[in-house]
Design goal:
The chain has 211 residues and is an alpha+beta fold. The protein has helices at residues 6-22, 44-50, 92-98, 152-167, 177-189, 195-199; strands at residues 30-37, 59-61, 70-76, 79-85, 102-109, 115-121, 124-129, 202-206. The chain has one domain.
């Protein structure tokens, strides 16, 4: 899996700017998950059921068109990609169901800056953290250090902000916390988001996991 690079972060800076032109509010709260089967690949229908949705009731929608509690799902070579807005998953039972014989990577943030970066596998939530506080002591889960090799960019960013705060310096550029987190997801999963994934109609479902 690739490291987080400045070029990858720049890609997500541009993507969120482009999405803002599509929908000025879409960047306030986003949800991105990748679910990958351990042996046999999982299908969109499989993941929809694990989210507590009826895959037979799926209708085509774009992410900006989603109502609360809904998500779009896409099949890819890297697993099933799930996108939503103003959504989160915190229930351990949902993580257990999603990650049965599978790996799950997820990042979401809400308008109040509440956020979560998580990795689950084989029915267990392995690691989760607040990307604004990614220090090792703040990570939680069965193995809080499992994502350490992927968190350098987030930890460097947190250190930069902490140093600025200590001396009362205003940054000359935004900290790009969400963009760096999206780049971290790409590094962990091999999946790259782009504007097309948000604006192309895909199968959408109403998911109990988001309620």
């Amino acid at each position: 899996m690739s490291p987080v690079t400045p070029e990858t972060v720049d890609h997500y800076v541009q993507m969120l700017a482009d999405l803002h032109r599509v929908d000025p509010h879409i960047g306030d709260a986003l949800f991105w998950m990748v679910v990958r089967g351990r042996g046999e690949p999982l299908t969109v229908a499989d993941v929809a059921r694990r989210l507590g949705a009826d895959p037979g009731a799926a209708v085509p929608r774009t992410v900006p068109e989603l109502e609360e509690g809904h998500a779009v799902l896409e099949q890819s070579d890297h697993g099933v990609i799930v996108l939503s807005r103003n959504a989160s998953i915190v229930d351990p039972d949902v993580w257990a169901r999603l990650s049965e014989n599978a790996q799950v990577w997820c990042f979401w943030w809400l308008a109040n800056s509440l956020n979560n970066l998580s990795y689950a596998a084989d029915g267990r939530l392995v690691t989760e953290l607040d990307v604004l506080h990614p220090e090792p002591s703040e990570c939680r889960g069965r193995d809080p250090r499992a994502l350490d090799s992927h968190l350098r960019a987030l930890r460097d960013l947190a250190g930069w902000k902490r140093a600025d705060d200590q001396v009362g310096v205003s940054p000359s550029a935004p900290y790009h916390r969400w963009e760096t987190s999206l780049a971290t997801m790409e590094a962990m999963t091999g999946v790259r988001l782009d504007v097309d994934r948000f604006t192309r109609r895909q199968r959408s479902v109403s998911a109990d996991a988001f309620r």
